[in-house]
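User: Sequence in, structure out. Go.
Assistant: Echoing your sequence, followed by the structure tokens.
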Amino acid sequence: MVAKAQEGMSSAKDEILRNIRSAVRGGAAREAEYAALTRPYRQAGVASVEEQLRLFTERLHDYGAVVYHCAERDIRDTVAQVLAVRGKHGLIVPAGISKEWLPDAFLFVRDEALNYDDIDRSEGVLTGCAVAIALTGTVVLRHSAAEGRRAITLVPDYHLCIVRAGQVVETVPEGIREMAKYSGAPLTTISGPSATSDIEMTRIKGVHGPRTLDVIVAVD
């Protein structure tokens, strides 16, 4: 019985390896075959900017995130408003975040190689984003100077994310094309506060990231 099971596993492994070798050898032919695939799904948005932002907000609300709207010139005041509502005194911010977003009445600690204990003890993190997808309510972080390394967006229990209206696309294919511009950069996709369910379907927040997500949507 054990020998047969091992034989079956070996056979499956060999098949997988054969397929990989075939794909690698195919090169340009495989790429052409992939490009020729029919894609009947919708690949571009048709909604207006206002409709996209409304849909994005609705999706985030569905996931349990809180969304604020403001003009780009009012980001600093809106950040102050959100932090006051949450009772926060300060947050970690990426080293390259815009100073114009940071109100003076709060303490913002720039992440310059903070250790995990410091990050864990923080009241949360404030970042920008790279792109957002309205249809799925997804925020995409490119871990650059403005969005920070993964640790500061996964360890803290609170995340305040600033999304500019021009970064919002309607559909997933559009979002993927935008993400392709950051080829080679680490990306994290966020659809609402972190949550998971165990085998008994008990929903638990904050397991794989912040349990609380606030989003500021800024319109130019």
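User: And one key feature?
Assistant: The two ends are 67 Å apart (CA to CA).
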